[in-house]
C-alpha cells in the first residue's frame, strides 16, 4: 500500500477532458499537454481510450513513449477487446495502468447494459484478471457509483480486489452526489469491504451541480487517496473536478486534510494556459486559482490590507501557482540558449529540434515587432511554431487585406495546398470575414464555423492576438489556433490550422456510449 499521507493526482484532461464537445486534441497536442502534466508532477496521466479510434490508440502510445516520470493510463470497458487494445497501447510505458470500468447503478445495469448484477460482477472480475496480464497496476471503476446501491458497490469492489485491482474508483458520473453523502459513501466502503486495505480508493466527480470539487474533497476527508480531475475542470458536460482547485485546497488547508499531493504547484498556470489554448476553451476571469482575476484585489480596503500584510486577504500567493507579474523576459538580442532555458522554466518542452528552431525563428520575428516579450507571448508562439513545424497540407503564404471607411473590406490570399501555390480574393463584412471567405474559396472545406474568438495575450496595442477558430463538418469538430501581432493574420492562421485538422480522418467511439 502506498503512503496514506500521499494524495494521488490522476489527471484525465486528455481523456474525459477531450469528451467536452469541441475540445478534441491531436496526438502532438496530447503529447505536449502530457509533458506539461509530467512537469507538474501529476502521478497518473489518463491519455485516452485506445479502442475508440486509431488516433486515440496512437495518442496513448505516443504519450506512453514520451512520459517517464508519471504513470500513463489507458481506459478500457470491461471487455476483452478494449483491454487488449489498452495493453498494446501502453506496451512502451515506463509505468502503465489499465483503467477498466462497468456501470453498477440499477438504471445503467437495466437500461444500458441489460445485464443482471451477477453478470456485471462476473464481467468486472474477468476484466480485471485480463488486465493483470498486461500490468500490475489495474484500476477498476464502478460507473455511476453516485447512484449505485452501497451493498452492491461493496460486493463488486471486494470481488475486483480479489481479482487484482489495486485502485477502486467511485465515479459520480452524472454529478448527482452531495458532499456529505458522498464522503459518507467513501467512509462506509472503506469500513465495510473486508479487503479494503489492499487498494486505494479514488473518486471521479462530474460538475453538473457545481459540486465536483466539493464532493472530491469530502471523499478525501473520508479516506479517498486518489482524485481524478482535469486542468481547468474540462470534461464531459459541465466538466470534471478541477485539478488546480483540488490541489490548492488540500495544500492551503493542511490543517484540515491529513494528506497532500506531490505536485509542483508553480506549474499550474502554465498548464492551464496550454490546455485553454489548445482546446479553445477560455478560462473565466473569476475562476479560482487560474482565472485572470483570481489574485487581483480591486477594492480599496482589500488593497490597503494586502499592502500592510498580504495574509489579511490572501490565502495563497499568486507566484506559488505560477502567476508571473507580466515581466519582460526576453528581448531581441536574447540567444537560443536563453530562449530554450526560459521556456524550460515555463514548463514548455519541444517534440523535436525542428519545433525548437521554428519557435526561435518566430520569437525573433516577434521581437522585431514588439519591444517587450512576456511569458504569455512565448507560450503563444510555441503553439504557433508547433503548427508550423508540422508538415501540414495547407500553409499560409501571404495575406493582404484592405479595410477603409465606407468601403467593403477585401482580402487577397495566397496559400500552398499539397505543395502547390494558389491565390484568390474575396470581399467580406470585415477584414477577417473577407480573409476567411478567400481561404474557403481555395480549400472548399465545407465546414461550419462554430466559434471565432480573439484574446489579446498581453496588454498594449502591440500585443499579440491569439485566435481560436472552431470548425465542424459532419459532427467532426476541430479547433485551430493562430497568434500574431496582426489580428487578421492570426485569424487566417487559426482558420488554416483548423482546416488542416479537419482534413485528418477520424472515427471515434465514446467510452460511455454503446458498443464499438
Ligand atoms: O464519469 C465516469 O464515470 C467516467 C468513467 C469512465 C470513470 O468517466
Ligand atoms: Zn467521467
Automatic annotation (TrEMBL):
Any GO molecular function: acetyl-CoA C-acetyltransferase activity
Every Pyruvate carboxyltransferase domain range: 7-269
Catalyzed reaction equations: 3-methyl-2-oxobutanoate + acetyl-CoA + H2O = (2S)-2-isopropylmalate + CoA + H(+)
Region named Regulatory domain: 395-516
Residues noted as binding Mn(2+) in the record, renumbered to the chain: 16, 204, 206, 240
Cofactor(s) this protein cannot do without: Mn(2+)
Keyword Membrane attached: no
A biological process term (GO) from this entry: L-leucine biosynthetic process
Pfam families, per the entry: HCS_D2, HMGL-like, LeuA_dimer
Its EC number(s): 2.3.3.13
Pathway(s): Amino-acid biosynthesis; L-leucine biosynthesis; L-leucine from 3-methyl-2-oxobutanoate: step 1/4
Protein keywords: Acyltransferase, Amino-acid biosynthesis, Branched-chain amino acid biosynthesis, Cytoplasm, Leucine biosynthesis, Manganese, Metal-binding, Transferase
GO CC, any one term: cytosol
Purpose: Catalyzes the condensation of the acetyl group of acetyl-CoA with 3-methyl-2-oxobutanoate (2-ketoisovalerate) to form 3-carboxy-3-hydroxy-4-methylpentanoate (2-isopropylmalate).
UniProt record similarity statement: Belongs to the alpha-IPM synthase/homocitrate synthase family. LeuA type 1 subfamily.
Assembly: Homodimer.
Name the record gives this protein: 2-isopropylmalate synthase
Organism name: endosymbiont of Riftia pachyptila
Protein's gene: leuA
Amino acid at each position: 500500500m502506498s503512503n496514506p499521507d500521499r494524495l494521488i493526482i490522476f489527471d484525465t484532461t486528455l481523456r474525459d477532458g477531450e469528451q467536452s464537445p469541441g475540445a478534441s486534441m491531436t496526438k502532438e497536442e496530447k503529447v505536449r499537454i502530457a509533458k506539461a502534466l509530467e512537469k507538474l508532477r501529476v502521478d497518473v496521466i489518463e491519455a485516452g481510450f485506445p479502442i475508440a479510434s486509431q488516433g486515440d490508440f496512437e495518442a496513448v502510445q505516443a504519450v506512453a513513449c514520451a512520459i517517464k516520470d508519471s504513470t500513463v493510463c489507458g481506459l478500457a470497458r470491461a471487455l476483452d477487446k478494449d483491454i487488449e487494445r489498452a495493453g498494446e497501447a501502453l506496451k512502451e510505458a515506463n509505468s502503465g495502468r489499465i483503467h477498466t470500468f462497468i456501470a453498477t447503478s440499477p438504471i445503467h445495469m437495466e437500461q444500458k447494459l441489460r445485464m443482471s448484477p451477477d453478470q456485471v460482477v462476473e464481467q468486472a472480475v474477468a476484466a480485471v484478471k485480463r488486465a493483470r496480464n498486461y500490468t500490475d497496476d489495474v484500476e477498476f471503476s464502478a460507473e455511476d457509483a453516485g447512484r449505485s446501491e452501497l451493498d452492491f458497490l461493496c460486493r463488486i469492489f471486494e470481488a475486483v480486489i480479489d481479482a487484482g485491482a489495486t485502485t477502486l474508483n467511485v465515479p459520480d458520473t452524472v454529478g448527482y452526489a452531495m458532499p456529505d453523502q458522498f464522503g459518507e459513501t467513501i467512509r462506509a466502503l472503506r469500513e465495510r469491504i473486508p479487503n479494503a486495505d489492499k487498494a486505494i480508493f479514488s473518486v471521479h466527480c462530474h460538475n453538473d451541480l457545481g459540486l465536483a470539487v466539493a464532493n472530491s474533497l469530502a471523499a478525501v476527508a473520508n479516506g479517498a487517496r486518489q482524485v481524478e480531475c482535469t486542468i481547468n475542470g474540462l470534461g464531459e458536460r459541465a466538466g470534471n473536478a478541477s485539478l488546480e482547485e483540488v490541489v490548492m485546497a488540500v495544500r492551503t488547508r493542511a490543517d484540515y486534510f491529513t494528506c497532500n499531493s506531490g505536485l509542483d504547484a508553480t506549474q499550474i498556470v502554465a498548464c492551464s494556459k496550454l490546455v485553454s489554448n489548445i482546446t479553445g476553451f477560455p478560462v473565466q476571469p473569476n475562476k479560482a486559482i487560474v482565472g485572470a482575476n483570481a489574485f487581483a484585489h480591486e477594492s480599496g480596503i482589500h488593497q490597503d490590507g494586502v499592502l500592510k500584510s498580504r495574509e489579511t486577504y490572501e490565502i495563497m500567493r499568486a507566484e506559488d501557482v505560477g502567476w508571473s507579474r507580466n515581466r519582460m523576459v526576453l528581448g531581441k538580442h536574447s540567444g537560443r540558449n536563453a530562449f530554450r532555458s526560459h521556456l524550460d522554466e515555463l514548463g514548455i518542452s519541444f517534440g523535436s529540434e525542428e519545433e525548437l528552431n521554428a519557435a526561435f525563428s518566430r520569437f525573433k520575428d516577434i521581437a522585431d515587432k514588439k519591444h517587450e516579450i512576456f511569458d504569455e507571448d512565448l507560450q503563444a508562439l510555441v503553439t504557433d511554431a508547433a503548427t508550423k513545424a508540422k508538415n501540414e497540407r495547407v500553409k499560409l503564404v501571404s495575406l493582404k487585406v484592405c479595410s477603409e471607411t465606407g468601403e467593403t473590406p477585401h482580402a487577397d490570399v495566397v496559400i500552398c495546398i499539397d505543395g502547390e501555390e494558389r491565390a484568390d480574393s474575396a470581399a467580406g463584412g470585415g477584414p477577417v470575414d473577407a480573409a476567411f471567405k478567400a481561404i474557403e474559396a481555395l480549400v472548399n472545406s465545407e465546414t461550419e464555423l462554430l466559434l471565432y474568438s480573439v484574446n489579446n495575450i498581453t496588454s498594449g496595442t502591440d500585443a499579440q492576438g491569439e485566435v481560436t477558430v472552431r470548425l465542424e463538418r459532419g459532427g467532426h469538430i476541430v479547433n485551430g489556433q493562430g497568434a500574431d501581432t496582426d489580428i487578421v493574420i492570426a485569424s487566417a492562421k487559426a482558420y488554416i490550422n483548423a482546416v488542416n485538422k479537419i482534413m485528418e480522418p477520424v472515427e471515434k467511439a465514446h467510452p460511455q456510449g454503446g458498443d464499438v
